[in-house]
Amino acid sequence: MAKHLIKVIIGPHVTEKATMLSAKNQYVFKIHKTADKAQVKAAVEKEFNVKVASVRTVNLLGKERKSGAITGRRSDWKKAYVAIVDGHVITLPESETVKD
User: Fold this and answer.
1) Is there a contact between 98 and 10 (Cβ–Cβ < 8 Å)?
2) What are residue 66's DSSP bridge partners?
3) Which of 36, 42, 72, 97 reaches 20 to 30 Å from 54, CA-CA?
4) pLDDT tens profile 8-67
5) Run of H or E residues at 68
6) 14/12 Cα distance (integer angstroms)
7) b or e along 8-28 (b: 16 or more beta carbons within 10 Å of the residue's beta carbon)?
8) What pLDDT digit, counting tens, does each position of 51-100 carry?
């Protein structure tokens, strides 16, 4: 199972809302589309050496894009809101941000 945990978290999802939530010990990550809450919890605890209180996941649809007469879609994706137990902190380097 540890082998699969590396592929669960794609990277942090940095937005204004995510920055405000980090003050409340909640962090937002872009995760693999097939990952479930238990896998996300295990991956965050292993990668950042913290204790996770709860995980909420959200499935998001990709945006529709038009280029002239051609219409396409971005890929659907999934993100997780991870609440950390008080006293633990996750420090995310700026270079690891995932851009859409």
Assistant:
1) yes
2) 71
3) 97
4) 999 999 999 999 998 999 999 999 999 999 999 999 999 999 999 999 999 999 999 998
5) none
6) 6
7) bbbebbbeeebeebbeebbbb
8) 999 999 999 999 999 989 999 999 999 999 999 999 888 887 765 555 55
